[in-house]
Amino acid sequence: MCISMQGACVSILCVCICVSVLLHSAISQPPTESDIYTECTDGYHWDHQTEHCKDINECETIPDACKGEMKCFNHYGGYLCLPRSASVIPAPEPPITPTETNPCPLGYEPQGDTCVDINECEREEHDCQPSQECINTVGAFTCQCPDGYRKVGTECIDIDECRYRYCQHRCVNVPGSFSCQCEPGFQLAGNNRSCIDVNECDMGAPCSQRCYNTYGTFLCRCDQGYELGPDGFACNDIDECSYSSYLCQYQCVNEPGKFSCVCPEGYQLQGTRLCQDINECETGEHQCTDTQTCVNIHGRYQCVDSNRCQEPYVQVSENRCVCPVNKPVCRDLPFSIVHRYMSITSERSVPSDIFQIQATSVSPGAYNTFRIRSGDENGDFYIRQINNISAMLVLARAVSGPREYTLDLEMVSVNPLLSYQGNYQTSSALRLSIYVGPYTF
Q1: How far is CA 336 from CA 202, 319, 410, in A?
Q2: For the chain, how far is it from start to end, CA to CA, in angstroms?
Q3: N or C: which end of the chain has fewer CB within 10 A?
Q4: Mean pLDDT, all residues of the chain
Q5: Is residue 69 a contact partner of residue 84, using CB atoms and an 8 Å limit?
Q6: pLDDT value at residue 11
Q7: Is there a contact between 45 and 35 (Cβ–Cβ < 8 Å)?
């Protein structure tokens, strides 16, 4: 057992000696070209000229490296597919400079018997892009991207802040930043992100009359008598007179935002729509002389002689004429004539009662009849007897003015009780002057 173990030891020692001899032989041989390291990691290829690994530009070597609307961006050891709106600041190729043998770890340099940190940023021994900020760290350095960018590999890629819904309404991404925009009717608040309503009415909204601000917009409204135009801003006058012919009794006059009624000469406005005849005889606005009597008619006045009695009649009172019985010519004429005046409107509806005749005195047993003695040659009127002492003058046909009628309305009285004196008959007349006005009111 002991011999066997010794034999094993001898055998192991022999193997160790052989290996040692072989290693010594191999180390002592000079290196050949095939022993140089020429393999690179994925995304790089060996450059025989510089004897370094060089980045492969996959965007050029791979057909259609990015699909759809994506754009290919090459970077060290690979490539990126980013939206076409993305902004990329390419990194420059790191310079290859020969270095001397440094016994200190990477990022340090010897200083006496110790190793101190190298500030690559101060020495500009860094590969940061011009747009990046070099920040020294212990034994190394970092490249920091500007605000609004994020670092992918050695490149700075724009951050699309609009993806994070920073804006209340609309977000517009720009390289390295973003801006918020508001819908029409709103403006940016002080935080440049929120949107607040704009009071267009205080900012010169194009309303021609009234402006009402609402959330995000405004409304135009018009005063009474106006209507909003098709553009929603202008106010157009409403022609009320064109809507109806019954707004005014005589004539409607349209005015901006309203209308007014006017009356013809000789009338005055009563209220806002009706026309009332002016009684010039009461107001004194007439030109009648002292020997004349002023008679008011529709829209005007008439001056008549105070004494209208004609031969053989004589005046016994202001409006009454009498034919004396002692004159033979009076036997066939009405005993008395009373003058009266009236006016009617044009186109009055017919038949129309216009004047009532009333006997002032009647003898006992007398029988009275009424008739139109003269003045109605065209048959525009007729008499309707009511009873023994009264009758009604009726307008039979519509008449237009201005026009004047003078009718003698006669009451004939027959009294049988006075038959001892013969066939006793007497009459009296009412001379009625009728003025037809030019208007229908």
Answers
A1: 84, 10, 10
A2: 159
A3: N
A4: 85
A5: yes
A6: 33
A7: no
Residue whose C-alpha is closest to residue 129's, from 68, 174, 87: 87
φ and ψ at residue 15, rounded to 5 degrees: -65, -45
Provide the residue count of the chain.
441
Nearest to 274 by CA among 248, 240, 300: 248
Residue type, 60: E
Tell which phi-psi region holds residue 266, choosing left (phi > 0), alpha (psi between -120 and 50) or beta: left
Nearest to 384 by CA among 396, 366, 376, 399: 396
Pairing state between β 44-47 and 390-395: unpaired
pLDDT at 7 over 60: no
3-state class (DSSP) for residue 325:
coil
Residue 92: pLDDT band with limits 50, 70, 90: low
For residue 50, give Cα distances in angstroms to 38, 162, 298.
Answer: 12, 44, 124
CA distances from 422 to 61, 109, 414, 415, 417 (A): 153, 172, 11, 10, 10
Locate 123 and state its tokens: 């020495």
